[in-house]
Request: fold
Amino acid sequence: MTKPALLMIGSYPNWDMQALERDYEVLRLWEQADKDGFVAQHAARITAIGTRGDLGASRALMDKLPNLKIIACNGVGTDAIDLAAAKARGIAVTNTPDVLNEEVADLTLALMLGIARQIGKGDAFVRSGKWANEGWPLLTRMSGKRLGLLGLGRIGLAIAKRAEAFGMPIAYHTRTKREGSAYTYYPSLVELAQNSDFLVAILPGGAGTQNIVNADVLKALGPKGFFINVARGTVADEEALLQALANKTIAGAALDVFWNEPKINERFFKLENALLHPHGGSATVETRQAMGKLVQDNLAAHFAGKPLLTPVG
Ligand code: NAP
Ligand code: 8YV
Reply:
């Protein structure tokens, strides 16, 4: 039987590529010099796209694929997929929710501790040999401090659970109050920031949340407050964040995500009060295997005419 043609926008780990090659004619877009020509050559046969959170799928690409039926995203964030274009065409979109919650939450706590206790700088300090002649400064405790969550969805809840073990009072801001939650709800993000020692962004990116962490929010967080971004770079006003760090109007920031990653603004490199991490909230073998399996299962369900496991919207 002819294998369905699956257009892959970017690479997946080898274990996924091997599994996908068994069931699909995998068309590797990222390896092509002439991408438009490649798409045009195979357009009529392509019914499925495999993409990643960072790569998404544009309306322009969808417009070139008249028989496209499904876009499977390896990642939970779908901000880089034009969901309106997909909906208008009746193209199904799937993502990988839940299987990465614990991993992203683990990294968030690591970043919170990392910026408060300056783990990265401590490592560099010991390696440089400076410890023999210089003292290490006293730093800021994390346990018992106030956590403010911008977003309290699947991952936000996993972060909150961990923060409870650190004795941290937890508050949050979302558009809709979470009924039944014991955490303190702030309808205003500025008020949440005013009442947080650690402000963690863990909400979707995209137009609706762009620059939601703006100069006012950072001012409200104040000179003793830390900002942690594990959501998307776009949720923070980058200029305001760079200035707040440079002027020390916030204590520091730990960032897993950036505007224009991986070619991020080099002004971050010089900031001693920033802890920088290369977008790796879900980046463990265990979790990436679970995410890849979910992508495969969604595609398999689609081609078997069964309900999708994790449809978006
Ligand atoms: P989720 O379950 O859909 O939760 C999203 C939360 O954000 C909800 O509490 C939602 O509440 C809130 N929210 C949405 N729009 C908002 C707005 N305009 N203002 C305030 N709150 C808003 O999503 P999730 O699975 O936890 O994932 C969250 C995001 O994390 C993803 O979309 C992705 O961008 C990011 N992520 C990053 C990594 C990484 O490697 N760093 C890994 C995985 C995911 P309301 O709807 O009530 O507003
Ligand atoms: C991935 C993520 O690294 O799930 C997400 O939204 O940001 C991460 O898990 C990203 O999607 C690339 O696949």
